[in-house]
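#onboarding

Welcome to the new folks! Below is a worked example of what a typical request in this channel looks like: someone posts a single protein sequence, and someone else replies with the predicted structure as tokens. Don't worry about understanding the tokens yet, we'll cover that in week two.

Example request:
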Amino acid sequence: MSIAFEQGLKFVSDNMGAALGGHISQLWIDTINSQIESISSDIMTKVQSTDLPADKLQGFVAEIWHSGTFNADSAVHNSAATAKAPDVNTYASADVEFGRSRASLKYYKDAKSSYAAQSETPYERYMHLKAKAEKAGKSYESLEEFLGKRKIKKEDMHKSMYQGQAKLIPTNQLLDAQKLLDKKIAVAQANGKLDQVARYREVQATLTDILSDKKGNKSIPLSREDAQRLTRAAKEGNLDQELLKECGLDINQLVTAKDIMSEAFTAGLSAAVISFVIGIAPTIIDGISMLVSEGEIDPKLFAEMGYKGLSSAARGFINGSITAALVACCQSGKLGTTLMGANASMISTAVVLMIGTLESGIRLATGRINKAQMAEEMSRLYITTAFSVGGGIAASVWFVEIPPLAMAAYMLGSFIGGVIGGFAYNIGHSLFMSFCVDSGCTFFGLVDQNYELPQEILDEIGIDIFEYEKFDYETFQYDSFQLDSFTPDAFEYDKFGITIIRRGVISIGKIGYQY
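Example response:
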């Protein structure tokens, strides 16, 4: 495996967390914004597709509002729960369906009218329809026929038509409706009408101003007046984000700090897993090679794999969490409206560069690296980051309409870009150092031009250098003569040799003489 490939792979495994965390958070915010936009679009479509006056449409608008804001809140929590408003208007049909639950909406002029409509029984509906038909001079079916067609048991004809459903009314009418039901229950108890007591209690227990699946996903309350404002604006064609915000639908209000931290944690874990897998890839390859060649696995290899994997995962988690939180804070308006358009890729890039710069700066301050080494590390970081982010953006743009594929493409493009960046840096660095060797440039001290001859070359050519910092005086040695150990001098002829030295890179950011 080449050094350039290993360097590019290491960069991606260490820093993919920031890019992936930002991309996950960007997708999360985009999904929420898409839900908000669909609410506005659906209201406009519904209102403008009918000739009914605006004051007759607030109920339809409320259905779209509650189902749409439930879906938006579900998107905030990354939940699969959804709500829809089926275009059905049959006997006791649900106005909104969410999961396995159903809801009836009554947006009438006051609390008394709204709760009364939710409390209507099959028998009351039959008597109303019969009176209406007789008033028009027509005959109407019998009670038995009415109940039989709708599969209603006779013992249930004095219960609420919408029994078992959530009963939504305007939020500004809820408190008054509950008080009116208290009075109805008290009167029914006083008169001994237990069937009415049971009916009103069931209505009171299920009366609400929001959809809620009891799992944290809920719709946004809506008053009748706001429903009418939305209807009139849609009828006039000027339903805008400002009005939605006034009615309570705004991403800054929808997304809480707790939601952001939860998303950041989720994104951080996802980034950690990806970083872990990428980080241990070279070790896995080495392990497979060992299995093929030797038929067994070295335990030290697995120990090394676990250490590297944990290191990459930890960095991926930190980078992913920070980036996800920053993207969510910016685009949800928590850091002001100016930063709501901040791009996730740019934020993730900033996080990678910030953390890389801090890391190198601390190592420089503690003396673990010198200025030239820090410059080399920062150059590698910036170039590889540029290639990695560019590769991710270039790959994901082909699948922008398919978010899951866009994320996969971004990751693949970022990986390839990081590897190419590693090669590109090595080539560029070699050319840069070659230019410095030939020209003698130091680029403001980033490159150390050393013109001292190495000690081994000085020793070879027989040059003795006086180093005053290391002065050692000579000691006097007297001559001695021993007969039994006398050795005659041997003749040594002079040797003539040529050693060619050249200038080159002798360490990181340092150029000097070498063989």
